[in-house]
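Service request form, structural biology core

Requester: graduate student, group of Dr. S.
Request type: structure prediction, single chain
Budget code: on file
Notes: please return the result as structure tokens.

Sequence provided:
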Amino acid sequence: MKMLKKVVLDVDSYMFPRFDTLRWVPMRYRKILPLSMMKRHQCIVIGAAQGKLTVAITDSVDLSIIELLQRLTKRTIFPVLIAPERMRQLIRHIEYCEQRKKRVMRLYYQPRLQIRAWVVMVAMLLGREDKG
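Core staff response, request fulfilled:
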């Protein structure tokens, strides 16, 4: 049984190169695929060159994700295999960064909206006083 697993792993790594040193995903590639798709299909775009996208995947058996990505992005997909745990870490990090960005945006825009509401209220009150 162990020999069979080793043979299957060797065949898998022959089909797609492994990328075990991947530690982070560049910002410019994080927005190519929606986070929900990355989580559902366990895939992340990690590079691009000459109309091709390099996509990290965890499953070399299910090739339908490659076809789906080619249809969605209208680009050729170059798949590389990474360990499932590494994929979970990368997706968690991307998810954390998106949540942090939303919090920062909310903190940035909320006071401006409140100030704008106050300005409108004061203008309305001053307008009423001028008419009276």
